[in-house]
Design brief:
The chain is of the alpha/beta class and 296 residues long.
């Protein structure tokens, strides 16, 4: 029996509608309009698409969007100066530095320059520490989106063995911290694997919930998945496809066609985790505005 498809687009639409309703209430009752600033350095095509999608999502939800597109040759000092300006701007409640940055820019130093109270991506060392302590302020958007998808689709991770394949600071590590917390949406037993894990399939076949986040296209195949597992595919890669008008198409870390015949439920790529990332960014920006104005 083929797997149930977990529709991230539908779930994201619900979150965005909730954010829009809350933003309208903030504006009507307190005169507060949440504002998100996005800093983009250079002309990476994928990054430009993501920034445009974030801007459109903000406008649809009634949030202000401030785009700061800097040339690729912008120095690190100039980027840090722009971030410092946004840290001081009272109209900006959330700041997102679009990744990847040019190789010559120190990524940890740049991300750490964003004020912790405006770090809606959850990458500031203080926010990372709060998450690990179990008292999060901002949870990174993609891991938060994964947790939301699981809960809203009826796959509570509590008591389940979750295997995460991927150890990035953007997805794998924070997702591990979220799902093992003693809190709703957590209480899972979490195994974290990565590209250097010997005999990876030995671990993935144990998973009640398998989360693929390595960035390796179609690397999780059907023999690596236990019958009846829930599979969440975070990876997004572009591969050649002569049948596509563009000559390429997007695929995930999971060999979808094969795994869908064994899994209980699975997220597609595109249309799975991706839409949830932007929805959670809006949610975090709304939260940042509430923090800034001491609203419950």
């Amino acid at each position: 029996m083929a797997a149930t498809i977990i529709d991230g687009t539908r779930h994201a639409r619900t979150v965005r509608q909730e954010v829009a309703a809350e933003a309208a209430r903030l504006r009507a009752e307190h005169g507060v309009v949440p504002g998100l600033a996005v800093v983009l350095v250079g002309d990476d095509p994928a990054s430009k698409v993501y920034v445009r999608m974030k801007r459109d999502a903000c406008e649809e939800a009634g949030l202000r969007s401030f785009d700061h597109h800097l040339p690729g040759e912008t120095t690190e000092a100039e980027i840090l100066d722009r971030i410092a300006h946004l840290n001081r701007d009272p109209a900006v409640h959330g700041i997102l530095v679009q990744l990847p940055l040019p190789p010559r820019i120190n990524e940890p130093r740049t991300l750490g320059a964003v004020a912790a109270e405006k770090d809606v991506d959850g990458f500031h060392p203080l926010n990372v520490g709060l998450l690990l302590l179990g008292t999060p302020r901002f949870v990174p958007c993609t891991p938060l989106g994964v947790q939301h998808l699981l809960m809203q689709s009826g796959f509570d991770p509590a008591g389940q063995h979750v295997v995460i394949v991927g150890r990035s600071t953007v997805v794998g590590k924070p997702l591990m911290a979220i799902l093992c917390q003693k809190a709703p949406g957590g209480n899972a037993t979490v195994t974290l694997c990565h590209s250097q894990t010997p005999d990876l399939a030995r671990f993935t076949r144990q998973a009640d919930i398998l989360i693929a986040a390595m960035g390796c296209p179609r690397s999780i195949t059907a023999p690596m998945v236990r019958e009846g597992a829930v599979v969440i595919d975070v990876g997004v890669s572009r591969v050649a496809d002569s049948s596509s008008p563009k000559g390429s198409r997007l695929v995930g870390d999971v060999d979808f066609d094969g795994v869908a015949q064994k899994a209980r439920a699975i997220t597609p790529v595109p249309g799975g985790v991706g839409p949830m990332t932007i929805a959670m960014l809006l949610k975090n920006t709304l939260l940042a505005a509430r923090y800034r104005h001491n609203l419950p």
